[in-house]
Amino acid sequence: MGGSALMATGLIIGSGEVSLPGGFERIGGLDTPYGPASDGFFKGQVRGHPLVVSYRHGEPRRFAPHAINYRANLWLLKTLGAERLIAVYAVGGIDGALRPGDLAAPHQIIDYTWGREHTFDATGAAHVDFTRPYDDELNSALAAAARQAGVDLVGGGVYGATQGPRLESAAEIDRLDRDGCTVVGMTGMPEAGLARELGLPMASLCIVVNAAAGRGDDPGRIDMAGFERAAERGFAGVMRLLEALLV
Ligand code: HPA
Hints:
5 helices, binds hypoxanthine, 24% helix, two-stranded antiparallel sheet, globular
Protein backbone atom coordinates (compact mmCIF):
# COMPACT_ATOMS: atom_id res chain seq x y z
CA MET A 1 0.00 0.00 0.00
CA GLY A 2 1.38 3.41 -0.91
CA GLY A 3 0.77 6.72 0.81
CA SER A 4 0.36 7.47 4.47
CA ALA A 5 0.01 4.63 6.92
CA LEU A 6 -2.51 6.80 8.72
CA MET A 7 -6.12 6.40 7.69
CA ALA A 8 -7.31 9.61 6.04
CA THR A 9 -10.57 10.99 7.37
CA GLY A 10 -13.07 12.84 5.22
CA LEU A 11 -14.86 15.73 6.89
CA ILE A 12 -18.03 16.94 5.18
CA ILE A 13 -19.28 20.29 6.35
CA GLY A 14 -21.89 22.86 5.49
CA SER A 15 -21.03 26.43 4.76
CA GLY A 16 -21.13 29.24 7.23
CA GLU A 17 -20.68 26.80 10.05
CA VAL A 18 -16.93 26.70 9.87
CA SER A 19 -13.55 28.15 9.43
CA LEU A 20 -10.83 25.58 8.99
CA PRO A 21 -7.63 25.80 10.96
CA GLY A 22 -4.61 27.27 9.11
CA GLY A 23 -2.61 25.18 6.67
CA PHE A 24 -5.50 23.71 4.70
CA GLU A 25 -4.98 23.82 0.96
CA ARG A 26 -7.73 24.04 -1.66
CA ILE A 27 -7.82 21.13 -4.11
CA GLY A 28 -8.70 21.57 -7.79
CA GLY A 29 -9.80 18.97 -10.34
CA LEU A 30 -13.31 18.33 -9.17
CA ASP A 31 -14.64 16.41 -12.18
CA THR A 32 -15.91 12.92 -11.50
CA PRO A 33 -17.78 10.28 -13.55
CA TYR A 34 -20.90 11.74 -11.89
CA GLY A 35 -20.24 15.33 -12.91
CA PRO A 36 -18.49 18.10 -10.99
CA ALA A 37 -18.25 17.99 -7.20
CA SER A 38 -19.09 21.08 -5.15
CA ASP A 39 -16.22 23.55 -5.44
CA GLY A 40 -14.72 23.52 -1.95
CA PHE A 41 -12.39 20.59 -1.31
CA PHE A 42 -9.43 21.11 0.99
CA LYS A 43 -6.70 18.92 2.38
CA GLY A 44 -4.62 19.35 5.45
CA GLN A 45 -3.77 17.76 8.75
CA VAL A 46 -5.07 17.80 12.28
CA ARG A 47 -2.39 16.63 14.71
CA GLY A 48 -0.55 14.97 11.83
CA HIS A 49 -3.66 13.09 10.75
CA PRO A 50 -4.60 13.57 7.09
CA LEU A 51 -7.97 15.21 6.64
CA VAL A 52 -9.87 15.80 3.39
CA VAL A 53 -12.57 18.42 3.78
CA SER A 54 -15.59 18.86 1.52
CA TYR A 55 -17.94 21.84 1.78
CA ARG A 56 -21.07 20.11 0.53
CA HIS A 57 -22.79 23.34 -0.60
CA GLY A 58 -19.60 24.69 -2.23
CA GLU A 59 -17.24 27.30 -0.83
CA PRO A 60 -18.48 29.96 -1.22
CA ARG A 61 -21.93 28.43 -0.88
CA ARG A 62 -23.77 27.95 -4.17
CA PHE A 63 -25.85 24.75 -4.01
CA ALA A 64 -29.16 24.37 -2.17
CA PRO A 65 -29.62 21.03 -0.38
CA HIS A 66 -31.62 19.47 -3.24
CA ALA A 67 -29.14 20.72 -5.86
CA ILE A 68 -25.93 19.32 -4.34
CA ASN A 69 -24.16 16.69 -6.44
CA TYR A 70 -23.87 14.25 -3.53
CA ARG A 71 -22.63 11.43 -5.73
CA ALA A 72 -19.73 13.49 -7.07
CA ASN A 73 -18.81 14.78 -3.60
CA LEU A 74 -18.76 11.31 -2.05
CA TRP A 75 -16.96 9.78 -5.00
CA LEU A 76 -14.26 12.45 -4.87
CA LEU A 77 -13.77 12.06 -1.12
CA LYS A 78 -13.11 8.37 -1.65
CA THR A 79 -10.85 9.03 -4.64
CA LEU A 80 -8.83 11.51 -2.57
CA GLY A 81 -8.14 8.79 -0.03
CA ALA A 82 -10.78 9.24 2.65
CA GLU A 83 -11.38 5.90 4.34
CA ARG A 84 -14.00 7.06 6.80
CA LEU A 85 -16.30 10.07 6.99
CA ILE A 86 -17.45 12.47 9.64
CA ALA A 87 -20.39 14.43 8.26
CA VAL A 88 -21.29 17.63 10.08
CA TYR A 89 -24.84 18.97 9.75
CA ALA A 90 -26.66 22.07 10.97
CA VAL A 91 -30.03 20.85 12.19
CA GLY A 92 -33.22 21.92 13.89
CA GLY A 93 -33.93 20.32 17.25
CA ILE A 94 -37.20 18.37 17.50
CA ASP A 95 -36.40 16.74 20.85
CA GLY A 96 -37.03 19.55 23.33
CA ALA A 97 -33.94 18.62 25.32
CA LEU A 98 -31.74 19.76 22.42
CA ARG A 99 -30.88 23.46 22.53
CA PRO A 100 -29.14 25.66 19.95
CA GLY A 101 -25.38 25.06 20.10
CA ASP A 102 -25.79 21.44 21.28
CA LEU A 103 -24.04 18.59 19.47
CA ALA A 104 -25.75 15.28 18.71
CA ALA A 105 -24.65 12.13 16.90
CA PRO A 106 -27.85 10.44 15.67
CA HIS A 107 -27.54 6.73 15.00
CA GLN A 108 -30.56 6.48 12.70
CA ILE A 109 -32.06 8.41 9.79
CA ILE A 110 -35.38 8.66 7.96
CA ASP A 111 -35.32 9.89 4.38
CA TYR A 112 -38.14 12.29 3.40
CA THR A 113 -36.27 13.72 0.41
CA TRP A 114 -37.29 13.11 -3.19
CA GLY A 115 -35.92 13.48 -6.71
CA ARG A 116 -32.26 13.44 -5.71
CA GLU A 117 -29.63 11.27 -7.43
CA HIS A 118 -29.33 8.83 -4.58
CA THR A 119 -27.45 5.79 -5.84
CA PHE A 120 -24.33 4.66 -7.70
CA ASP A 121 -26.04 1.34 -8.26
CA ALA A 122 -27.69 1.68 -11.67
CA THR A 123 -29.13 -1.83 -11.70
CA GLY A 124 -30.19 -1.97 -8.06
CA ALA A 125 -28.41 -5.30 -7.81
CA ALA A 126 -26.43 -4.43 -4.69
CA HIS A 127 -29.31 -3.49 -2.33
CA VAL A 128 -26.86 -2.37 0.33
CA ASP A 129 -27.77 -3.05 3.93
CA PHE A 130 -28.74 0.16 5.71
CA THR A 131 -30.19 -1.27 8.93
CA ARG A 132 -27.65 0.70 10.93
CA PRO A 133 -26.89 3.63 8.64
CA TYR A 134 -23.93 4.93 10.62
CA ASP A 135 -20.80 3.14 11.74
CA ASP A 136 -20.96 1.80 15.31
CA GLU A 137 -17.20 1.83 15.80
CA LEU A 138 -16.85 5.40 14.60
CA ASN A 139 -19.74 6.48 16.83
CA SER A 140 -18.06 4.85 19.83
CA ALA A 141 -14.80 6.59 18.95
CA LEU A 142 -16.66 9.92 18.67
CA ALA A 143 -18.29 9.41 22.07
CA ALA A 144 -14.92 8.60 23.64
CA ALA A 145 -13.29 11.62 21.96
CA ALA A 146 -16.08 13.87 23.23
CA ARG A 147 -15.58 12.64 26.79
CA GLN A 148 -11.85 13.17 26.49
CA ALA A 149 -12.25 16.65 25.06
CA GLY A 150 -14.90 17.63 27.60
CA VAL A 151 -17.41 18.26 24.80
CA ASP A 152 -21.06 17.43 25.49
CA LEU A 153 -22.29 15.10 22.76
CA VAL A 154 -25.76 13.58 22.77
CA GLY A 155 -25.31 10.06 21.39
CA GLY A 156 -28.20 8.46 19.50
CA GLY A 157 -31.40 9.84 18.07
CA VAL A 158 -32.94 9.96 14.62
CA TYR A 159 -32.18 12.45 11.83
CA GLY A 160 -35.18 13.33 9.66
CA ALA A 161 -33.90 14.36 6.21
CA THR A 162 -36.28 16.83 4.55
CA GLN A 163 -36.22 18.22 1.03
CA GLY A 164 -35.88 21.96 1.70
CA PRO A 165 -34.82 24.53 0.94
CA ARG A 166 -37.83 25.89 2.80
CA LEU A 167 -38.10 25.06 6.47
CA GLU A 168 -40.87 22.73 7.65
CA SER A 169 -44.39 23.54 8.78
CA ALA A 170 -45.22 22.87 12.44
CA ALA A 171 -47.43 19.97 11.34
CA GLU A 172 -44.57 18.45 9.34
CA ILE A 173 -42.39 18.62 12.44
CA ASP A 174 -45.17 17.01 14.51
CA ARG A 175 -45.24 14.19 11.97
CA LEU A 176 -41.45 13.76 12.10
CA ASP A 177 -41.70 13.72 15.89
CA ARG A 178 -44.34 10.97 15.74
CA ASP A 179 -42.00 9.06 13.42
CA GLY A 180 -39.32 9.25 16.11
CA CYS A 181 -37.09 11.96 14.63
CA THR A 182 -35.10 13.95 17.18
CA VAL A 183 -33.42 16.36 14.74
CA VAL A 184 -34.25 17.64 11.26
CA GLY A 185 -31.95 18.68 8.43
CA MET A 186 -31.90 18.83 4.64
CA THR A 187 -28.63 17.16 3.64
CA GLY A 188 -28.35 13.89 5.59
CA MET A 189 -29.70 11.96 2.59
CA PRO A 190 -28.66 10.75 0.13
CA GLU A 191 -25.24 11.38 1.69
CA ALA A 192 -25.39 8.51 4.19
CA GLY A 193 -26.77 6.01 1.66
CA LEU A 194 -24.10 6.87 -0.90
CA ALA A 195 -21.34 6.52 1.70
CA ARG A 196 -22.68 3.06 2.52
CA GLU A 197 -22.69 2.12 -1.18
CA LEU A 198 -19.03 3.16 -1.39
CA GLY A 199 -18.19 1.15 1.72
CA LEU A 200 -17.14 4.26 3.64
CA PRO A 201 -17.89 4.13 7.38
CA MET A 202 -19.67 7.35 8.35
CA ALA A 203 -20.76 9.13 11.50
CA SER A 204 -23.13 12.07 11.65
CA LEU A 205 -22.30 15.01 13.88
CA CYS A 206 -25.19 17.43 14.17
CA ILE A 207 -25.02 21.00 15.40
CA VAL A 208 -28.42 22.14 16.63
CA VAL A 209 -28.87 25.68 15.33
CA ASN A 210 -32.57 26.26 16.06
CA ALA A 211 -35.64 24.72 17.61
CA ALA A 212 -37.62 23.06 14.80
CA ALA A 213 -40.81 24.68 13.49
CA GLY A 214 -43.50 25.00 16.14
CA ARG A 215 -41.03 24.20 18.95
CA GLY A 216 -38.88 26.20 21.32
CA ASP A 217 -39.37 29.57 23.00
CA ASP A 218 -40.90 31.21 19.91
CA PRO A 219 -43.07 28.48 18.34
CA GLY A 220 -44.70 30.92 15.91
CA ARG A 221 -41.66 31.24 13.65
CA ILE A 222 -38.06 30.19 13.19
CA ASP A 223 -35.62 32.97 13.83
CA MET A 224 -32.65 32.59 11.47
CA ALA A 225 -30.72 35.28 13.33
CA GLY A 226 -29.39 32.84 15.90
CA PHE A 227 -28.31 30.21 13.33
CA GLU A 228 -24.80 31.46 12.74
CA ARG A 229 -23.91 32.01 16.37
CA ALA A 230 -25.14 28.54 17.34
CA ALA A 231 -23.29 27.03 14.36
CA GLU A 232 -20.05 28.75 15.33
CA ARG A 233 -20.39 27.59 18.93
CA GLY A 234 -21.19 24.07 17.82
CA PHE A 235 -18.36 23.94 15.32
CA ALA A 236 -15.82 24.97 17.94
CA GLY A 237 -16.92 21.82 19.81
CA VAL A 238 -16.65 19.77 16.60
CA MET A 239 -13.03 20.84 16.09
CA ARG A 240 -12.13 20.05 19.73
CA LEU A 241 -13.75 16.69 19.34
CA LEU A 242 -11.87 16.00 16.10
CA GLU A 243 -8.56 16.89 17.73
CA ALA A 244 -9.27 14.24 20.36
CA LEU A 245 -10.46 11.73 17.74
CA LEU A 246 -7.61 12.12 15.28
CA VAL A 247 -4.69 10.82 17.28
N1 HPA B 1 -35.17 22.20 9.43
C1 HPA B 1 -34.48 21.66 8.40
N2 HPA B 1 -33.18 21.88 8.20
C2 HPA B 1 -32.54 22.66 9.09
C3 HPA B 1 -33.19 23.25 10.19
C4 HPA B 1 -34.59 23.00 10.35
O1 HPA B 1 -35.24 23.49 11.30
N3 HPA B 1 -32.27 23.97 10.84
C5 HPA B 1 -31.08 23.80 10.19
N4 HPA B 1 -31.24 23.01 9.13
